[in-house]
Amino acid sequence: MDSIEHFKLSIPEQRLEELHNRLELARFPEEIDDAGWTYGSPAADIRRLVEYWKTKFDWRAQEAKLNGLPHFKTSIPVKGFDDVNVHYIHQKHPADSAIPLLFLHGWPGSFIEVTKILPLLSSPQSSGPVFSIVAPSLPNFGFSSRVKKQGFGLPQHAECVNNLMHKLGYPEYVVQAGDWGMGISRALAAKFSSSCKAYHLNTIVAFPPPFTTMPIQTVKHLVTPYTAKEKEGLKRSRHVRKEGSGYYKEQSTRPATLGFSLSDSPVGLLAWIYEKLVEWTDSYPWTEDEILTWVSIYWFSEAGPAAASYLYYEANHTSEPIAKEYLGWIGGSKIGISYFPQEMFVPPKSWGRSLGPVVFESENDHGGHFGAWEVPDVIARDVKAMYGKGGGAFGLIRGKSGYAEPSSRL
Length: 410
Description:
410 residues; alpha/beta; nine-stranded mixed sheet
């Protein structure tokens, strides 16, 4: 598929019937009395959602809503691998000066996360700066194809999305990212900084600045007390590592074993994802339709419900594992960081500044892991502040200032 083709979501009726049959035959485990969230997804919640899935959820309505967006597919080469058939949304702003922005999701999200910020950043009615947004389904996610060869880690994901942007006529671009999008952004900065000019993150994984490579920053870090919010952030981080990181260990070591359950049981898939939707957000009022649309995208995904888990394994077992290559200082591309109190990992700002040239920061009182979905107005505000006039990443792309009037490069 060398050409670019329009794409329309259209799940065969047979697959909808199969899903309904599987839901009808579901077996539920017994639960300990008054367990609540102590052991994971509560049985009462899952039973309620399964009943809604069977009797009230309308996939066709959600499908039609998603089909109102501009979907495409195209084939993207990645060195050492077969071409990847990439699905993506491409919302172009009519202004030639619109800033090309690559939106990168992670697990258990998908391209759907971009939908709430599209009208805020790329509609003709949005105030400047304005953006043309590309939001791909990562390989093995959503409606992009399965990668069957081992070793497709963060460098390969970065090469894939970089090649996609080039194919769409964007030799230079900026990024907004969360979850695995952070790791891919770091790989873009390390390998393709001439194209990826800057990236804004709402997920941050960082550590104290090392004295051997950042002595001045280390001294500042040691003599500057943590703020009350930073102390709360560290407390949140410790809690997630202790009580909420089992999924990461499983998916990064034995994704195939887990995959049998995720591929065979829509109820198992629902429970696996639902836990994270609730625990990683800041009291976000999830509706049944939202939850089941997110989960259905995984169930109906081209690569299958389990394929996305393999990114955890590959990111930790390739020749460039994430901890060694992408968690230290990377120069070149400028960085913006939005901190949210219910993110999984909430490091002090001095830790975040050890990642590279940070030119924008915001510290928010509300929000969690899925920033573009939970608080789209905040993400849009921060993206505009970072890439707009007066922002630390303004004017990085020649002729693409985000404003109608001519703007000089800074």
